């Protein structure tokens, strides 16, 4: 079935939606994005995603072509028009089409390009992987130095995902000097002696919206949280591990570089956090 998508003010059938070949998102990866989950037809943590979008735009000196209120309306309209029950809304804002290719940013009068589309994922919250867990391999992180800005420069994460596939595992953890930064499209955590350990914020990782919520819920549940870098060796000796992202929520990791963690089965901390997360975010879904 053809989706209805949104491009620069218009709701269109996906076959009719177009963006210029001179768009800086296409030529320069000069664009930022957000992915917001939908559960039971409602948006999960929309405010968090809108706030990070504003930050990404600000860091790149890109004007917001739409207000947060308009963005919420467009998200809801697409969910309704496409009858999405469970799934995601993808949003991308580029620096627009200056009419030619040039490294310098165009004048501020060139409007940004705004694209949104939905992806239906029936049963998103009941992903069977949560019962068996994921396997990961570690690879050297070769991304640029501002991973805190959510740009569409996703070539290295795509390459790392292919390395994971070639190794017959589910994902790759990206590593710098033996320390784990994050997954290809998620934040990474280990659990040791009941303590939840995840890399501190900085330019090296994306500031996950799910990460912020999960750490808040963990602290509220009196769990101990340590925000610091952890090594690949430490991960291999962990009791359990997991990842978080807007579309995977909390997903257990049961193997790192061929080494089974703990019992080799999803751990209790990941299972509990997944349960708490889903319960809490459903309460504030809009
Ligand atoms: N790190 C990276 C590199 C990501 O691409 C993502 C998901 N886009 C995340 C972390 C998780 O962020 P969020 O919880 O906001 O989806």
UniProtKB/TrEMBL annotation:
Keywords: Aminotransferase, Pyridoxal phosphate, Transferase. One of its GO terms (molecular function) is D-alanine-2-oxoglutarate aminotransferase activity. One of its GO terms (cellular component) is cytosol. It is an enzyme of class 2 (transferase). Its cofactor is pyridoxal 5'-phosphate. InterPro entries: Aminotrans_IV, Aminotrans_IV_CS, Aminotransferase-like, BCAT-like_C, BCAT-like_N, Class-IV_PLP-Dep_Aminotrnsfr. Pfam families: Aminotran_4 (PF01063). Its EC number is 2.6.1.21. SUPFAM superfamilies: D-aminoacid aminotransferase-like PLP-dependent enzymes (SSF56752). GO terms for biological process: amino acid biosynthetic process; carboxylic acid biosynthetic process. Belongs to the class-IV pyridoxal-phosphate-dependent aminotransferase family. This is D-alanine aminotransferase. The lineage of its organism: unclassified sequences, metagenomes, ecological metagenomes. The gene is dat_13.
């Amino acid at each position: 079935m053809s989706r209805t998508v949104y491009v620069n003010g218009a709701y269109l059938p996906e076959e009719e939606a177009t963006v210029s070949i001179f768009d800086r998102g296409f030529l320069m990866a000069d664009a930022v994005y957000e992915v917001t989950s939908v559960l039971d037809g409602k948006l999960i943590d929309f405010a968090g995603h809108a706030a990070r979008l504003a930050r990404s735009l600000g860091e790149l000196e890109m004007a917001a072509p739409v207000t947060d209120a308009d963005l919420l309306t467009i998200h809801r309209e697409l969910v309704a028009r496409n009858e999405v029950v469970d799934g995601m809304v993808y949003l991308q804002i580029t620096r627009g089409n200056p009419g030619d290719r040039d490294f310098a940013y165009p004048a501020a009068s060139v409007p940004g390009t705004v694209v949104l589309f939905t992806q239906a994922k029936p049963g998103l919250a009941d992903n069977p992987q949560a019962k068996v867990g994921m396997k990961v391999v570690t690879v050297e992180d070769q991304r640029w130095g501002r991973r805190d800005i959510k740009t569409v420069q996703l070539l290295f994460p795509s390459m790392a995902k292919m390395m994971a596939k070639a190794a017959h595992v589910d994902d790759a953890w990206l590593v710098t000097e033996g320390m784990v930064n994050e997954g290809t499209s998620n934040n990474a955590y280990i659990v040791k002696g009941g303590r939840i350990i995840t890399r501190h914020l900085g330019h090296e990782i994306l500031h996950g919206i799910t990460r912020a919520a999960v750490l808040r819920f963990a602290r509220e549940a009196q769990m101990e949280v340590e925000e610091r870098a952890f090594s690949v060796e430490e991960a291999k000796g962990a009791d359990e591990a997991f990842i978080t992202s807007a579309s995977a929520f909390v997903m257990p990791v049961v193997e790192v570089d061929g080494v089974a963690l703990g019992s080799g089965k999803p751990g209790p901390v990941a299972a509990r956090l997944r349960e708490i997360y889903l319960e809490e975010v459903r309460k504030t879904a809009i």
